[in-house]
Amino acid sequence: MDFGYEGKAVVITGSSKGIGRQTAEEMLKLGAKVMLVARGEEALVKAQKELSAYGKVEYIVQDVTEAGAGETIINAVIDKFGRLDVLVNNAGGAFAESFEDIEVSDWEGDLNLKLMSAVKMSKAALPHLKENGGAILNLTAIAGKAPGASTLPTAVSRSAGLSMTKAMSKDLGKYNIRVNAVCIGLIRSDQIEKMWQRQAPELSWEEFATTGHDNTPLGRIGETTEAANVITFLCSDLASYITGVAVNIDGGASPAL
């Protein structure tokens, strides 16, 4: 089965670890060239060394919230690979509190990281994606569709990302640029593993991942590869008639469609 990645260039923000890194690995295995982006050089060097076994991978140390970061990153992709076909906006973090506990500065920081960084990256990428068509994939969270108590400001940032995804898909379809999103639920990550070590270090990962998840129909925490596989598909030629959708990767936990 041909995913159409051979020779294509991909940039993934927040890709030194977790879902971003795993997505890079899956796309490299299918023939893509990948630019990793993150703030920490040590983690990027480690990821590049490990991933180079699968294909051509470069990295750039960059905080996506800084002024001009989008142009700097995209220019590096063009300089290294000569083209751009796929942008995965994965930069983000977990920040969820009750409304009364959040300062205005926290709102601004969260929106800048999770929404505006994707806006800036997409704007910088657009001229190059228009050349051959391509794909933009925005990572959000299931709270963006169904906000719960004490999920602010992240639920609002993620909801805005979903609206942006749908509107962009309608504007950019004429250039054969597809724009989709994934809504992440409980997926294995550094944060989840720290929670495991803090809450139940006596349990194996398999035991922890399958304990106390009654609100998730599949009854467990998802693996990083399970998220990366969906992202890889949505950005591939196999999904050539899919745009403007937001796919839940949550084991069925979200009450929203």
Based on the model shown, name its key terms:
17% strand, two-stranded antiparallel sheet, 257 residues, 2 domains, 9 strands, alpha/beta, seven-stranded parallel beta sheet, 8 helices, Rossmann fold, NAD(P)-dependent dehydrogenase, short-chain alcohol dehydrogenase family
Any overview of this molecule?
The structure is a single chain. With 257 residues, the protein is an alpha/beta fold. It has 2 domains: 9-187 and 225-249, NAD(P)-binding Rossmann-like Domain (Rossmann fold, 3-Layer(aba) Sandwich); 191-221, no CATH class. Helix content is 43%, strand content 17%. The chain contains 8 helices and 9 strands. It has helices spanning 18-29, 41-51, 69-81, 104-132, 154-172, 190-199, 205-209, 224-234; strands at residues 9-13, 33-38, 57-61, 86-89, 96-97, 134-141, 152-153, 177-184, 246-249. A 7-stranded parallel β-sheet has the order 3-2-1-4-6-8-9, sandwiched between helices. Helix 2 links the parallel strand 2 and strand 3 (57-61). Helix 1 crosses helix 8 (224-234), helix 3 (69-81) runs parallel beside helix 4 and helix 4 packs parallel to helix 5. The longest helix is centred in the middle third of the chain and has 29 residues, at 104-132. The radius of gyration is 18 Å and the shape is globular. The two termini are 29 Å apart. The model has no long low-confidence stretch (mean pLDDT 96). Belongs to the short-chain dehydrogenases/reductases (SDR) family. This is NAD(P)-dependent dehydrogenase, short-chain alcohol dehydrogenase family. Keywords: Oxidoreductase. InterPro entries: NAD(P)-bd_dom_sf, SDR, SDR_fam. One of its GO terms (molecular function) is oxidoreductase activity.
